[in-house]
């Protein structure tokens, strides 16, 4: 009863609608004996009270509609029977064919809305509005279907649903019921507190918590790497046939400033916060879209055999390399740098990897404005010794380490 979608369903009114107020009263009396808080056993008292209150309200609504206009009451019952989010339900609701054009659908919608609007009683306002919303949604569904959208996918999502812990009314049309209201939840954090936020949808939302935690804990400040791992794992879930998976992860923390505030010249205007230059080492994996050659790069490492890979493959390789580096026991910054230097020598496709000894992969001191925005943003957000997230530029996919 608490889950019934409308007042008619609460009372168990037949699909044809009530013949008169007598039918409504009979249905109410029959159910009231079963759900009255004093009669119910082995049930949460609050649930029993809520169910009885819903039954009482539903009886008043349907009785008022029936007294006002029995034909409109039955039409509202018919409208609310169908699922406007599916093509079949939308056609039945608006009483049009699936191949109906825009004008036919619009006319059917407007006629129904005008008919239902005649029953705008104060007692039944919410139920009538639910019917009008259903008409509008049904027209939208048929409009989307005419545009060639994957309606079957949406209908499957509606049937399967998404766990409540994964999604709370984020606007996905397929997952919202008629008259649904957006639920907003907020969280507050102290100024300066480090925060990570992740959003998983579709197949990724089905991942067990432990599968989300492991990449997140390893790639603590590499959000894209964590999101890529979640999406990759989601595509291997048993029983699913998804061709894609989505996830977003962001990290927020205070930027470290290499200069002490007291040492700043008092009259010097402060520009962008953070260091003015950083010394970097990087590993580059070149890539190109499927069917296209690698882009010209005068700074590329010259090898007899050039590896051809897609951006997706390059990201996957780089995530695996990053995981290997982050999984190493913490033995000090020097060992950390040495491990990355060896990796650059073996795998990097930038000419900087040909540098001897300590200079392998070394880009030297890099100032702001000298590199592409994505590379600069990644590099200047690093703290000394840290590895960057998966970073994409016109040259390919990079893994960066700040060494000074």
TrEMBL record:
- Please name the Pfam families in this protein's record: DnaJ, Rotamase
Which leading EC class covers this enzyme? isomerase
For the J domain, which residue ranges apply?
Answer: 6-86
Entry GO terms, CC:
cytosol; nucleus
Every PpiC domain range? 275-404
Listed InterPro entries: DnaJ_domain (IPR001623), J_dom_sf (IPR036869), PPIase_dom_sf (IPR046357), PPIase_Pin1 (IPR051370), PPIase_PpiC (IPR000297)
Q: Cite the SUPFAM superfamilies for this sequence.
A: Chaperone J-domain (SSF46565), FKBP-like (SSF54534)
Q: Where is this region: Disordered?
A: 291-313
Q: What EC number is given for this enzyme?
A: 5.2.1.8
Kindly state which keywords UniProt assigns to this record, in alphabetical order: Isomerase, Rotamase
**Molecular function as annotated in GO:** peptidyl-prolyl cis-trans isomerase activity
Q: Which domain of life is it from?
A: Eukaryota
Question: Which reaction is catalysed here?
Answer: [protein]-peptidylproline (omega=180) = [protein]-peptidylproline (omega=0)
Q: What is this protein called?
A: peptidylprolyl isomerase
Q: Which organism is it from?
A: Effrenium voratum
